[in-house]
Amino acid sequence: MMTFKTPDLCDEFESELGKTVRVVAPMFQRYGGRPSFSGQIVTLKIFEDNALVREVFGENGQGKVLVIDGGGSLRCALIGDQLAILAANNGWAGAVVYGCIRDSGDINGIDFGVRALNTHPQKTLKKGVGDRNIAVSFGGVTFNPGEYLYADEDGVLVSSKALC
Asked: Which of 35, 46, 118, 132 is deepest in the core (most CB within 10 A)?
């Protein structure tokens, strides 16, 4: 696993002509057993329905991070312990959730990084409604599929190219 520090990446890549990194607003709580994670972005745009999360986490996620635009809903959880286990088993580095998760104590013991707005004990509906691999925006940043995300104790960065 590569090591990086988001402050160092900001210092190195913001000094170039034109900003290479985009910094996500500090709005997320840290969960999962992996304090820092990075990878190529896969996106989902869903609302209070996590059926597509299970589908995506069932695929090979080696070198990838799932960015979930859950509309900022605080009414249910989009990832729980079973989905985090599935993701870790399939090689996903982590997930950034513009919404909530549940089973946070269990997720903290899984080798998987998570950033989410908060926790909520209730599960979602499962209708399979949503969009995959489209540009999503929250936290002052647009996340494009195929770009790169870096998350650690200091924040979340997005870059159009691999930084390390």
From this structure: 46
- For 32-154, where are the E strands, in sequence order? 37-45, 64-69, 77-79, 94-101, 113-119, 131-132, 136-138, 141-143, 148-152
- Cα–Cα distance, 116 to 28 (Å, whole number): 5
Q: Can you give the residue ranges of every domain in the chain?
A: 6-159
Q: How many helices (H) and strands (E) does the chain have?
A: 4, 12
- Which CATH number describes the domain made up of 6-159? 3.50.30.40
The three-class DSSP label of residue 51 is helix
Contact 86, 58 (CB under 8 A): yes
- Report pTM: 0.96
Residue 20: predicted pLDDT = 82
CA distances from 124 to 26, 42, 75, 103 (A): 25, 21, 9, 14
Dump pLDDT digits (tens) for 98-138.
999 999 999 999 999 999 999 999 999 899 999 999 999 99
